[in-house]
Amino acid sequence: MYFSEAALANLADGYAALDEKLNKLVEGYVLLNLQKPRAREFASQGFPRRVKTMARCIKNVFALIPPERQELPSIDELSDATINIQSFIFNTFGAIDNLAWTWVSEKGQNRNDGTSIPDTHVGLGPKNISVRQLLPAALQAYLATLDEWMEYLASLRHALAHRIPLYIPPYVIEDADAAAYDELAKKMSAAIKALDFAAYDTLSAEQLKLGRFQPWISQSFAEGAKPVVFHPQLLADFNTVDEVGHKVLAELGGA
After folding, report:
1. How far apart are the first and last CA of the chain?
2. DSSP label at 254?
3. Which residues have CB under 8 Å from 218's CB, separation 6+?
4. In angstroms, rounded to a whole number, what is the distance separating the alpha carbons of residues 141 and 26?
5. 3-state secondary structure of 228
6. Is the dihedral of CA 181, 187, 191, 196 positive or negative?
7. Measured distance CA(48)–CA(234) in Å, rounded
8. What are φ and ψ of residue 167, in 5° steps?
9. pLDDT tens digit sequence for 175-219
10. Using CA atoms, how far apart are residues 250 and 255, in angstroms rounded to an integer?
11. Rounded CA gap, 93 and 91, in Å?
C-alpha cells in the first residue's frame, strides 16, 4: 500500500470535510451583496460553478482510484481519473481568476494612477501586480504567502493547455524488479518476431505483475517536472481555494 494508515486516516478526514466546506463557500458567494451586475455574476455563478466542479472531480478520482488501492488500475480508470484531474486543475486556476474578476468588477478595473488594467492582467498571482495593488494590505500580504502555490498552479495549467498534458503512469518498476522486467521485454520481442502471439501474451502478463501502482501524476518527464501524489494534492488545492475564497469574501463584505 502506498499510503500509511495515518496518511489514509488524514485523507479520509479531508475527504469527509469536503461537502461542508463547499456548501459554506458557495453559500457565502451566492448571498454576497454586490452592487455591480458583472461582479454578482462572477460571485454567484462563475466562482461557485468552478468550486463545485473541483469538488466533484475530487470525488470522482477517489472513487475511481481509492487511496487504499493496491492493484493496478485499468486503462479506462486511469483515463477517467486523468480527465478529472485535468478538469480540476483548469477549474482551480479559473476559480482564483474568478475571485480576481469579482473584485475588479465590483471595485473598478483601474490602477491607482487611473489607467485601465488590461483583461489579460486580471488575476491574483504574483505577476498580477496591478490587481494585487488594489487589494487591502492584509489581503496582499496573505496572497504573497501563496506565491509558490500560485506559480505551481499556473505551471500545471499552462503545460496542460499548451504543452504536455498531465499523465498518470500505469505502473512503476522497482529497482529490484528492473532486470526481470527487461528480460521479459526481450522475450516478448522474440515472441513477436516469431509470430508467437500466445507466448507474447503470457510474457506480457508476467511482466505486468512486476508493476507497482503509485498515485502520481506528472506533467513532462523531459521538462524535469516532479511527480505529484494526487490524492492529498487535490484536497490541499481545494483547501487553498477555500481559504483564499473566504479571505476575499470577508473583504467584499460577506460572512
Report:
1. 42
2. -
3. 166, 167, 169, 225, 226, 227, 228
4. 24
5. strand
6. negative
7. 17
8. -145, 135
9. 776 777 777 778 888 888 888 888 887 877 776 776 688 898 887
10. 6
11. 5
